[in-house]
Amino acid sequence: MQGHRTKDFWAGALYLALGLATVILARGLTLGSAARMGPGYFPTVLGGLLAVIGLVSLLRGLVRPAERVDRIHLKPMVLVIGATLFFAASLDVLGLAVALPAAMVIAATASRRFRIAPMPLLGLAGFTLFCVLVFVRGLGVPLPMFGTLFGG
Amino acid sequence: MDIFGDLLIGVQTAFSFWNLTYCLLGVFLGTAIGVLPGLGPTATVAMLLPVTFGLPPETAIIMLAGIFYGAQYGGSTTAILVNLPGESSSVVTAIDGYQMARQGQAGKALATAAIGSFIAGSVATVLIAFFAPLLSNVALAFGPHEYFALMVLGLAASVVLASGSLLHAVGMILVGLILGLIGTDIQTGAMRFTFGSFELADGISFVVVAMGVFGLGEILSNLERESDRTTVLAKVTGLMPSRADFRRILPPVGRGTAIGSVLGILPGGGAMLSSFAAYALEKKVSKTPQQFGKGAIEGVAGPEAANNAGAQTSFIPMLTLGIPSNPVMALMIGALIMQGIQPGPSVIQDQPALFWGLIVSMWVGNLMLLVLNLPLIGIWVKMISIPYGYLFPCIVAFCLIGVFSLANSTFDIWLMGLFGVAGYILRKLDCEPAPLLLGFVLGPMLEEHLRRAMLVSRGDVTTFLTSPISAALLLIAAALIASVLAPAIRATREEAFQDED
Fold this sequence. Notes:
Helix content of chain A: 55-70%
Keywords (chain B): Membrane, Transmembrane, Transmembrane helix
Mean pLDDT of chain A: 87
Largest sheet of chain B: 2 strands, antiparallel
Order of helices and strands of chain B: HHHHHHHEEHHHHHHHHHHHHHHH
Domain DUF112 (chain B): 20-438
Shape of chain A: flat
Number of strands of chain A: 0
Radius of gyration of chain B: 22 Å
Oligomer: heterodimer
InterPro entries (chain B): DUF112_TM
Strand content of chain A: under 5%
Number of helices of chain A: 5
Protein name (chain B): TctA family transporter
Transmembrane segments (chain B): 60-82, 109-135, 147-179, 200-220, 258-281, 321-341, 353-376, 388-407, 469-489
């Protein structure tokens, strides 16, 4: 017994959960028949298959010796993903010119070598200006330059 | 029309001022981003994809193709100079290329890679020009049965060629297929898995998935290994290979081109597998196999030619059948669909300018790579030496703006964040994300053809076996899967992927 720490076990659990969720959610859709498949037919088949694969992987993880899952590094994940979510949430209020560099700084703190210094800050300002010029002015992406907070 | 008339259309398209400009821009940007350590062609193409949205279809696909082979060449440069392959296909290049660089032959290794890639790219381009129209003529007769069988074969092949666990490759394909279902059902208009969200009604854009899983997910994985990055750069000197070197590299380039051209058409890890196969072959035919791993020039020439040939011929199934053989081709299909073009056998007839323009531009692009990259090597070396700590926030920024520009909404950014977490966790569990993207792109097509085929046959499943073409395709798919399960082949397959680590 390898216990429940193996990669196979967790991947299997993930597949199983996703497969079952698909089947359960697809119950609200018309199944139809093999000749006239409704919107629920294909999802139910796929979900079922995934659940079976998940079960096999899960059992294999329990029985067969296998690699354990490496440590999941939470800090970079929280910071980098947090930066993207911060950008999504604050874009309308702050605008690209403020939200983008702020998100980049949040993401940058995930690096072990992060420190505040004049050169990177200057680079950040230059990069933001570059993005504003290329994407908003040049390519016409309708990103708010300054958000509602700054009356933009 | 004869092939020369077709090629003339291609020349007219490819040599128009704007198409040449965008081809050059694509090759340049692709190389510039591709040389950055830790960014492979898939991430590069996904990141730069939104830039092409405003362009006409021919120009967009020409630029994207340029980005693709530029990125691949850039990846080889990084593999040779700092031993940090950006994508699995340049892992082999790093073995002997980096050794050559350490012995002061970095310039020669880079030139070999460039010349090998150019020759292979030229040959593969000719192959596409001859074989793609033939294949598309065959495919024009395909009905829903044949298409369904063909996609099953494609998915089966991608399972077999994927490194890592077979079970997980199948699992990831299924996850991709299920994610592809999200949105409005085309036939009935029913909402599926949208959770009442208005934004999900059109389904999830594949760019969101690709940028989340490949862009953000890769950043998270790279940040873990940040401390063991080597910053020592090999010095680049003596660019031109001598006449004797040329004689040494030409045979491996020829063999690599042949291997790559054949394997590139196959779905799955075409480019990667072909570079591994080419390396193994060179080692076998060499009179001095003990030189391999210590800076053998043949060990750079063969795999580089193979992976470039494979990259070019992987366009054949994408353009003629609408079936992606690797994640980059999945992105290309997505880009074409966004441009309002459904990739498939009718593309050659309906869009001759696009098809032939792309082929001619591939050759032009390869020439540009050769002419540009050797003189510009100084710039690439500077790009490589940018510390990752400065680099990845910029990548995050490009992903943010790129994803926003898809639908001009922040909803896709939230989704991308979600897929970033998923991509990181899946990598931790040894689940390769490439089959997921293939499944995601093929999902809607697979379902549509299945439903149509079953409607025609009134629900009779044996219909897939009574049509000879579809039966043959399904048989090959079954044989592929069975071959991996057979113990003898399984052992060699595991051995083949051993070298990768």
